[in-house]
Design brief:
Order of helices and strands: HEEEHHEEEEEEHHHE
Strand order of the largest sheet: 1-10-9-6-7
Helix content: 25-40%
Strand content: 15-25%
CATH topology of one domain: Phosphatase 2c, domain 1
Largest sheet: 5 strands, antiparallel
Radius of gyration: 25 Å
CATH class of one domain: Alpha Beta
Oligomer: single chain
Shape: globular
CATH superfamily of one domain: PPM-type phosphatase domain
Number of helices: 6
Structural class: alpha+beta
């Protein structure tokens, strides 16, 4: 039989001071809760940092196009995303997405979308419809039955100034032209994660100097004022046309300033916008 070590430093027993009463269950629970709160707060901060890093992908600058994006989250963690990806053959890709739900569940879902998207982009990044099909299958296998996400993915060819895109149930982007009617990119498909065999159509659109493409999430256009009126696509269009902005970042500033003036800062959902500005 092995000997038992009852020394003060032994892990087999602990020293008991009979003059000090044992802590009650409530005291032990409070001490445990304090530790858990610290741990959860640290994990939450790390999660926020990871999510922000996902939306800071640098793409080499181009003389032909300026681009920018902004995500205003309702909470520390959100379900919106945007991304820019450099591709071969003088092309660049961009994406904007929105996961169902809010806060941590939505953040986990959209992180899954972004991770799957970047992986798929290595193999089929130049084929928007095929990419959405790949991301959809991966998402369906790894997500809960009641979770889904919308995603717009576009590939812009800098040489031909042609946009090829596919849309998985996301709000249709708006193209504003200086001397022509605005265009809405209507081609769309089912949201990601609902069915394993969903397929997507590819749309194309030729862009010209001075054109501005604005992709957005529903939190942006569904903001309301004091009377309950939605800002809507009309509000977004008015803000863009009235801004006289000369670049993508400047236009984003104007859009969110107009949104804030209309809604007085009352947002019910994450609000995200991606802007492409053709020179």
């Amino acid at each position: 039989m092995p000997s038992l070590d009852f020394s003060e430093n032994s892990s087999s027993c602990r020293r008991v001071d009979l003059d000090v009463p044992e802590p009650t269950f409530s005291q032990r629970y409070e001490n445990m809760s304090d530790t858990m709160v610290v741990d959860v707060s640290q994990d939450w901060a790390t999660a926020c940092d990871v999510q922000q890093r996902f939306m800071h992908q640098a793409v080499p600058a181009s003389l032909d196009i300026a681009y920018a994006a902004r995500c205003r989250q309702l909470r520390a963690l959100g379900g919106d995303c945007h991304d820019f990806l450099p591709l071969a053959h003088d092309s660049m890709a961009f994406a904007i997405g929105d996961a169902s739900g809010k806060s941590l569940p939505a953040a986990l879902m959209i992180a899954n979308v972004q991770s799957s998207l970047r992986t798929a982009a290595f193999f089929v990044g130049g084929q928007p419809a095929a990419l959405l099909g790949t991301v959809n299958r991966q998402l369906h296998e790894s997500s809960l039955a009641d979770q889904f996400a919308t995603l717009f993915f576009g590939v812009f060819d800098l040489a031909t100034r042609t946009l090829r895109y596919a849309n998985a149930g996301h709000n249709p982007p708006l193209i504003i032209r200086p001397d022509a009617p605005s265009v809405v990119l209507e081609t769309t498909g089912l949201p990601l994660g609902l069915f394993p065999d969903s397929t997507y159509q590819e749309g194309t659109h030729r862009l010209h100097s001075g054109d501005v493409l604005i992709a957005y999430t529903d939190g942006l256009i569904e903001a309301v004022n004091q009377t309950g009126e939605e800002w809507g696509l009309h509000g977004l269009r008015r803000a863009a046309l009235g801004s006289h902005a000369k670049g993508a970042s400047e236009l984003l500033d104007a859009i969110f300033a107009s949104l804030d003036e209309f809604s007085q800062g009352r947002l019910a959902d994450d609000a995200t916008a991606v802007v492409l500005f053709l020179r």
